[in-house]
């Protein structure tokens, strides 16, 4: 088994409020959740973390899968003394959330998955992307990734809002990005979905070219207590493009 990595995290919000863990997209860091923080106000104790090899988290040994990213989160919860929490993950973070809810149901109160998938073939596409960033770094792929994160309309209308996200992608350690690609290539969580008992909110961006709404529909169909919301005018990073709508959906789902 791959040894758990000590994840970099930031915890904000009042002591005693319900815990919400936030896991981000491939190539992001915990700042991708900044648009949510003022909107969560003092109602949630928010733990934003970086996946291994992303942002401030060390990469550790290679050859890890979604299950290892999930075990990193369980180790972080143990370290922070969190017995049980709600989890919200976008994209790669959503895959980790599905694994956690299926394999550690006693730790996950409620689940929100945004712009994610239980299975994302073809594996060769991800492995090729991993080879590309290992060979050339992140800069050459940054514009293509940005083109999946945001709609053309949003990029054209609000370049100053988009620029920090391009810088975020370019700053992602190439080895961490490649490790994430390999974890997605090997992932097939479809058989796990029926094990998920946590109330689950599935959110898809209507214009997401990376994980289109059909991926969310499959998750919704195969999980017991789930609901799907397709958010209009949003691509892959729907929480950034539609911060009001997404923050409201998350708080309504995780707070009674
Ligand atoms: O393809 C992308 O860049 C978007 C993406 C798919 C899964 C993920 O985590 O990011």
Descriptive report:
By secondary structure, the chain is an alpha/beta fold. 45% of the residues lie in helices and 15% in strands. The chain has 11 helices and 7 strands. The protein has a 7-stranded mixed beta sheet, sandwiched between helices. β2, α1 and β3 form a beta-alpha-beta unit. α2 packs across α3, α4 packs antiparallel against α8 and α5 packs across α7. The longest helix is centred in the first third of the chain and has 15 residues. The N and C termini lie far apart (37 Å). 50% of the residues are buried. The structure holds ligand LWBT4IAB. Ligand LWBT4IAB binds next to α5.
Shape: globular
> Main sheet, how many strands, which sense, barrel?
7 strands, mixed
Radius of gyration: 16 Å
Q: Please provide the count of β strands.
A: 7
Overall average residue pLDDT: 97
> What's the total helix number?
11
Uncertain regions spanning at least 5 consecutive residues: none
Q: Which small-molecule species are bound to the chains here?
A: the ligand O=C(O)CC1=CCC(=O)O1
> Which structural class best describes the helix and strand composition?
alpha/beta
InterPro entries: AB_hydrolase, AB_hydrolase_1, AB_hydrolase_fold, PcaD/CatD
Protein name: 3-oxoadipate enol-lactonase
Domain AB hydrolase-1: 18-242
GO molecular function: 3-oxoadipate enol-lactonase activity
Quick overview:
45% of the residues lie in helices and 15% in strands. It has eleven helices and seven strands. Ligand LWBT4IAB binds at residues 25-26, 91-92, 145, 148, 184, 210-211, 236.
């Amino acid at each position: 088994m791959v040894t758990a990595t000590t994840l970099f995290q930031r915890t904000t919000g009042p002591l005693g409020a319900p815990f919400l863990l936030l896991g981000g997209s491939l190539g992001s860091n915990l700042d991708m959740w900044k648009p949510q923080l003022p909107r969560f106000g003092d109602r949630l104790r928010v733990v934003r973390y970086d996946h291994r090899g992303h942002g401030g988290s060390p990469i550790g040994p290679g050859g890890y899968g979604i299950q290892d990213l999930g075990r990193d989160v369980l180790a972080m919860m143990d370290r922070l003394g969190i017995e049980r929490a709600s989890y919200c993950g976008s994209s790669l973070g959503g895959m980790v959330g599905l694994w956690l809810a299926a394999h550690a149901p006693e730790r996950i109160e409620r689940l929100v998955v945004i712009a994610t998938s239980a299975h994302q073939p073809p594996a060769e596409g991800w492995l090729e992307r991993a080879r590309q960033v290992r060979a050339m770094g992140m800069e050459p792929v940054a514009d293509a990734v940005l083109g999946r994160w945001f709609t053309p309309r949003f990029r054209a209308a609000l370049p100053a809002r988009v620029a920090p996200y391009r810088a975020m992608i370019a700053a992602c350690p190439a080895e961490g990005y490649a490790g994430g690609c390999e974890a997605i290539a090997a992932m097939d969580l479809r058989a796990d979905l029926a094990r998920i008992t946590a109330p689950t909110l599935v959110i898809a961006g209507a214009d997401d070219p990376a994980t289109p709404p059909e991926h969310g529909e499959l998750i919704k169909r195969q999980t017991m207590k789930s609901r799907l919301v397709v958010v209009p005018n949003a691509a892959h990073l729907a929480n950034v493009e539609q911060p009001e709508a997404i923050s409201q959906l998350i708080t309504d789902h995780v707070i009674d």
